[in-house]
Specification:
Length: about 475
């Protein structure tokens, strides 16, 4: 990105001054090297979002931002309920894609002798890859119950423990979901995808806690150096994609009807208080519940698989948080608490200490913020901050962020070579697709540690623990 287009406000804050039809400034949280590495399209998309009706404070981008559909991946924008809009492009196609982290009561020393057996057991248990199908097939009535109940529905069906729910965003079930707003096509796509990992950048990973950076938060989170955790990264599968695809078509018509002038048709949106806006929000909330249910069922399958190899394990949930959503939250705007609709696309909710929406045991240190890396590098656990609540509507980065397209990655890496290289470093990969492994090669992503360090220095979240991969199940 051309730095002359930006005004440097602080070392890690870059402003796009309002011009033309921009209603608010653009704001990038990034170091100079990360800004320079961003595609110019990020500048265009942050600028375009700033023109949307009802946007408050700024159109923002996190340190891992890169080009996306309409909104940049890593984009954050909040809108007034009255006069503001909701945009499917500001949520993304994989609605409620997120990360769940499980503590295991195991150490690296426990896992290492059984590592291959564990990798094979997880690969057998977790349906992964394009078109993967699960063991659960839902009837129409059961589908409606899942769309309303999310992880709560899954726990009631026996796929999990009641104690899991307090560690899940929204207590495991997103309110105001509207199953009646979901099309037959979306339902058909999800009928047998519950409990599947999917493809792309989704994964299940066995990880070692390699470093602790905040002792108090690590203690509250139950993380100790040498311990093993398991992270699950996936979302609402084909269901969310179908909801997003249909909404974009409907919102283009709605925008024209409501007189919304768009700089890019990919920013298709509808007034929050309109019929079209409420329809999308109801369907999107149902998709959030699909993702929460999906990760809950995967947790159950993971517990079974790990227990079959390491019966002394005890998998408990640290936290589950999404990074492709639009949610109604209260934030300080112009010095006053206001209800706003916060779009986070490839950006993680990161509530600070004291937030009433956090479980009692976590409230004093802030929300766990789960940051995925790549199968050959580190992942991170962060904690939300008070500054982040004010500066970014309680949002932080969500991962490393791609530095090249999947097509470019395929030209540079071979799946077999990636698997062999990682195995030589003690990291076992299991995947149904060597092409998918090549597309997700560690070198195709930015340095996640640099992204996380910038996130911390900018005050959006603070580092708690660094996680290193031991076994990765890739879609």
């Amino acid at each position: 990105m051309d730095l002359s287009l930006l005004k440097r406000r602080t070392e890690l804050e870059w402003v796009i001054e309002p011009r033309g039809k921009m209603r608010v400034p653009g704001l990038l949280f990034a170091s100079e090297p990360l800004v320079r590495a961003m595609d110019h399209k990020v500048f265009e998309q942050v600028t375009n979002v700033a023109t949307l009706p009802g946007i408050r404070a700024a159109s923002m981008a996190m340190p891992d931002a890169h080009w996306g559909y309409g909104f940049a991946v890593g984009g954050v924008a909040a809108f007034d309920p009255d006069g503001g809009v909701v945009s499917a492009g500001g949520v993304g196609f994989d609605i409620s894609c997120g990360v769940r982290c499980l503590r295991t009561r195991l150490t690296r020393a426990d896992v290492e002798p059984k590592k291959k057996d564990l990798a094979d057991a997880l690969f057998r248990a977790i349906p992964a890859g394009v078109g993967s199908r699960g063991r659960i097939r839902l009837s129409g009535d059961e589908m409606d119950r899942m769309l309303r109940g999310g992880a709560r529905w899954a726990v009631e069906k026996g796929w999990g423990e009641k104690g899991d729910l307090e560690r899940i965003e929204e207590g495991g079930a997103m309110r105001d979901a509207r199953p009646e707003a979901v099309s037959d096509r979306a339902r058909a796509r999800m009928r047998d995808e519950v409990g599947t990992l999917g493809s792309g950048n989704h994964y299940l990973e066995v990880q070692e806690v390699a470093e602790v950076h905040d002792a108090a938060a690590a203690e509250a989170f139950g993380l100790v150096v040498g311990d093993v955790v398991i992270s699950i990264h996936c979302g609402s599968r084909g269901f969310g994609h179908q909801i997003g695809t249909e909404a974009l078509r409907e919102m283009l018509d709605a925008g024209r009807k409501h007189g919304i002038d768009l700089p890019d048709r990919e920013l298709a949106c509808a007034p929050i208080r309109s019929k079209e806006g409420e329809h999308y929000l109801g369907a999107m909330r149902a998709a959030i519940n699909v993702a929460l249910a999906n990760r809950q069922v995967l947790t159950h399958l993971t517990r079974e698989a790990v227990g079959s190899v390491l019966p002394q394990s005890d998998l408990t949930l640290l936290y589950d948080v999404s990074h492709n959503t639009c949610k109604v939250e209260t934030h300080e705007v112009d010095g006053k608490p206001r209800e706003v609709y916060v779009h986070r696309k490839g950006a993680t909710r990161a509530w600070g200490p004291g937030h009433p929406g956090l479980p009692d045991r976590l409230r004093s240190v802030g929300q766990p913020v789960l940051i995925g890396g790549t199968m050959g590098t580190s992942s991170w656990v962060l904690a939300g901050t008070e500054k982040g609540m004010r500066a970014s509507f309680g949002s932080a980065c969500h991962g490393a962020g791609r530095s090249m397209s999947r097509h470019q990655a395929l030209k540079q890496w071979n799946g077999k070579q990636v698997v062999a290289e990682l195995e030589s470093r003690g990291i076992l990969i299991r995947s149904p697709s060597l092409r998918g492994v090549a597309e997700e090669a560690p070198g195709a992503y930015k340095d996640v540690t640099e992204v996380v360090e910038v996130t911390e220095k900018a005050g959006l979240a603070r580092r708690v623990a660094k996680l290193l991969p031991i076994v990765t199940i890739k879609g």
